[in-house]
Amino acid sequence: MEKSIARTMAEFALNLQYGDLPKEVIHEVKRYLYDSVGCAYGGYHTKDVNILREIYDDMGGKEEATLIGFGNKIPAVNATLVNSLMIRALDFNDIYWKEDPSHPSDIIPAALCVGEMVNASMEEIIVAIVLAYEFEMRLCLFAKPGVRERKWHHATITQFVSPIVAGRLLGLTVDQMVNAIGINGSHNHTIGCPTAGKLTMMKNTVDPMATQSGVFAALMAQKGFSGTEKVFEGKEGFMDAFGGWDYKEEKVKPVKMQGREGLSDWSWDVDALIGELGGSFKIMECGMKAFPTEALTHTHLSATLNVVTKNNITYDQIKEVEITTFAQAYDILFDPTKYRPESRETADHSLPYCIAAALVDHKITTQSFSDEKMKDPRIWEVIDKIKGIGSLEFEKMFPAKQPSNVIVRTTDGKEFSEYLEYPKGDPREPMTEEDLDNKFAALSIGLLTEERMKEVKEAIFNCEKMSIGEFMKTLTV
Q: Which of 141, 381, 394, 415 is least crowded, fewest Cβ atoms below 10 Å from its Cβ?
């Protein structure tokens, strides 16, 4: 390679200008910012967020960056973690899933908090958010198969992106940003267990931690701290350690390995990561969530809700529900622990629970995972009637499509079915402005009046006219 992968990424990140961004890309940034702020309001009262707030309140420190909604300022590194977890806490923020899944909006707080610390323009913050989506989503195409298939969590890829976002706003040089990527990429490889089996608060926290760490790495690099330049392609680097790469020749060398779904050739697509940068922008390909649940549940929920609402089927009329999904989703969503979830984190990743709640209430909201709802006897009456089937045929369609076939059999001998290939919120069926408004209102109710909801929306969609300080102040409840 003429130059390292990290250097290529750093050069693009520092050369991209606000004037290079098409209007539709800028508008899309604002849509995702609107969605993310709404999700942060949804996370305002969660236990995990408030544990972190309490820790940082006790620690004190320099007032550099504002906590979304709360309005107080704490050190930017700390604020990044709290704000990122607020966005992530209900598992309702954006989703992109190819070889790997990701939630690029987890990284938005790196832009907001560092931007506020240095008083960056909102135009610069928009550029940083574009970079967050660009490289996070490209990294989802990089490993073949993805790191998730190799039993690692996607926070492993976020670690390479967050220092770029922070570094852009800190005004790092190319060499400094290369160091920042090398620093953060050396110590945030995250094993897959936070999203496997019985889930805990770490399910939503590992990615925010990788985001926070990237801010600290950028600050270290700014002070002259060095990091491994060939953190991707070098000896015992990311690619060499994960297999399928010859570090001496710096070329792909596929190797057969056993992953979550069986034996396959492990390799890398370098062009997917750094090819044709700036030709188009990946944020236009990201998706939003219409449900506060694990991304792979969405097509199944959409299909199930279509069946029961169109045919007015109540939960007590149901004899059996059969859901066909692709094999990877079956392993994640029908794990035996998912039939008796004991926490919100497990319940919103449990397809049996999500489907049971949809059958009972004919809707899925954040309240579907409240302590009260998880004690609803109707859910436990119907949950064991839900059966899953893993389909190799459907597996071949993923990730281009997320197919679902739902069959509902009723006690009177009738059968109803629905087949869908992608859910609401997918780029092929994007959420409308009305959808976003409804989602935002549902997440911020009890915190904002209708008038304040309108003010926040107006601020977000005109944010380039504001200072970052004014913008963050507007978000205070």
A: 415
